[in-house]
């Protein structure tokens, strides 16, 4: 008797000291484990919910996988570029805003030239004036580079695809180098061994169908002037460029054969004017010799856009019909102060409405996150309750029945529960269907009432 009492007292002391470590007869560890799993799942859902709320604006706190997804390279051709807005100081009501208009690029024919600004020699690169195709689908522009080690320049010509969904003005205003094709359609020699040598390419004009563009390459020296101009044509259909240098050889041959003048001893050059208006497949150029105070006219010449069959058109400087197909954007002045002030007031209202809308959307998004989180918690709780009811049922049946009778009784009870649950679902569907029909009937009555009212108003207006 005494040893038994001593053992009970020792067990009681151990239970007081170590708490739950000693198992008690009435504890059910299956239920305890299920409750713990429920707690873990709820915590996981809570962390997911908090992470979704924080990651609406991505920060540096993320996993390696998330960072790699966000930092993956994007297609630059599909990026949206907003029109840059000049900041308006708060102490000024009116800031002059430039007004633009679209004009012909090659007007008068052969006039387009590249203007290099002083900042070009500091930044060592400049994107010059571009030309827009007649159908406003692409923009061609030259990019000039400066090499300070030799004082020389080089040039590439790039193409930017314009957005078809915008107006012609917005297409040009929103054109950005980020949307250009990676490879240039034409390039000069990049060799910068010759000091002060410049090489530039200037777009002259598009063909009438917009499938070809005429360009001129100028090579010279900043100390000595222009040495040579060579026309090129790039065909967007075949993606080939054609050198029209044979027209220079023909001019030289003609004057040597006809007048016994060797143009190699003279300073002379050509000037591409554009595509012929009568025959769009021909390019028209003029030529002059700079041998005195006044340039000597060397004739007007034509050559096919592929660089074949050069021929003399005129020797007396007669007018030639040149097509003007490309477009460019120029500043036409400034917008009146009244328009700018009105736009400022409208923009303030728009910004205010946008801020309110953004706030409403943010709240709605947070509500959806919270709603989804609560729905998931309810789902976990329901699953837990169902699993515990099922576990209690099994335990109750196993405690009162043995053998195959326990499984048979369990299946019968589950079948009865399924039938009862199905009946409840059907009743709920019938209830929802009746509510929906009632709502539709109410809407139809209101619609009919409104139509009757509108017809009465129309008849009254007609009578008046």
Task: Please characterize this protein's 3D structure.
- By secondary structure, this protein is α+β, with helices and mostly antiparallel strands.
- Among the domains are: 98-334, no CATH class; 419-464.
- Helix content is 43%, strand content 23%.
- It is built from eight helices and 15 strands.
- The strands form four sheets. Strands 2, 3, 4, 5 and 6 form a five-stranded antiparallel beta sheet that branches. Strands 7-8-9-10 form a four-stranded antiparallel beta sheet, with no helix packed on it. Strands 11-12-13-14 form a four-stranded antiparallel beta sheet.
- Strand 11 (268-275) and strand 12 (282-289) form a beta hairpin.
- The chain is elongated.
- The model is unreliable at 8-26 (pLDDT under 50).
List its salient traits.
464 residues; alpha+beta; 5-stranded antiparallel beta sheet; 4-stranded antiparallel beta sheet; elongated
Q: Would you report the number of β strands?
A: 15
Structural Rg: 42 Å
Number of helices: 8
Helix vs. strand class: alpha+beta
The overall average pLDDT, rounded, is 84
Order of helices and strands: HHHEHEEEEHEEEEEHEEEEEHH
Assign a percent range to the helix content. 40-55%
Ranges with pLDDT <50 over ≥5 residues?
8-26
What would the principal axes of the Cα set say about the shape? elongated
Give the biggest sheet: 5 strands, antiparallel
Strand content: 15-25%
**First-last Cα distance:** 116 Å
